[in-house]
Amino acid sequence: MSSPHSIVALTAGGPHSWIMINALRERFGPFAIIMEDGEPESVLWKRRMKMLGPLKVASMQAARIPMKLTKRGTQAIIDDLIASEGLQPAAPDEDDIIRVPSVNSEACRGALKTLGPSAVFVVSTRMIGKKTLGAVNAPFINYHSGINPAYRGMFGGYFALANGEPEHFGATVHLVDEGVDTGGILYQSRLEPKLGDNFHTYLWRLAAGSRDIVIKAMEDAVSGTLSPVHVNLPSRQWFAPTLGGYVWTGLSRGVW
């Protein structure tokens, strides 16, 4: 299938992805969604082990225990966000979804070439390789739940608060290159967490307050008016909280 504006989405799925994709579909009408199989956790942790070392990775895995304890009561906050903000976290009809093993597979590149989009929206996928980025003559535009370049990688909203930088609690829409959230910045949102928010609700809060910048960026892409901006911040990639970091930040700053 195609849309009048030839937008295509690449995703691995998940409620935050569907919130953004459904917001775009309300603005532009139905368009094709290429959905990759999720990357196995074993592969992800193996890659982190190679990059960060076994001790740090073991601490990251141990942090999941207190994180589970802080999850109690957060579903009510999420339900309120869904209702008050009109979020749509459910997947569209299966007929609109093209399933591929990976965004870096021949199947994905073939689907992109067949659809011939003028712009590709990316949300929650593994890193996209050079071959896929070059498969079509179209910009790839990513939604990232963190303020680039200071909070590239994972859990940018959480780490901004954990570092005592609430002014950087927000999201970025940027062009995709071969780096980790290193492409040209298009738009950013600056938001505020609410009482009761924690690690489990930050992504929902960011998604609820960032749909407008996703729509703006894709409107620019369709009209050929993309205009990256410079953000004067130090560049750093973040991964997952360690056990000591998560507990200390929670006790000292009240950021869980």
From TrEMBL:
It is an enzyme of class 2 (transferase). Pathway: Purine metabolism; IMP biosynthesis via de novo pathway; N(2)-formyl-N(1)-(5-phospho-D-ribosyl)glycinamide from N(1)-(5-phospho-D-ribosyl)glycinamide (10-formyl THF route): step 1/1. One of its GO terms (molecular function) is phosphoribosylglycinamide formyltransferase activity. Residues 103-207 form the Formyl transferase N-terminal domain. One of its GO terms (biological process) is 'de novo' IMP biosynthetic process. GO terms for cellular component: cytosol. InterPro entries: Formyl_transf_N, Formyl_transf_N_sf. Pfam families: Formyl_trans_N. Keywords: Purine biosynthesis, Transferase. Gene3D superfamilies: Formyl transferase, N-terminal domain. Its EC number is 2.1.2.2. This is phosphoribosylglycinamide formyltransferase 1. It comes from Henriciella mobilis.
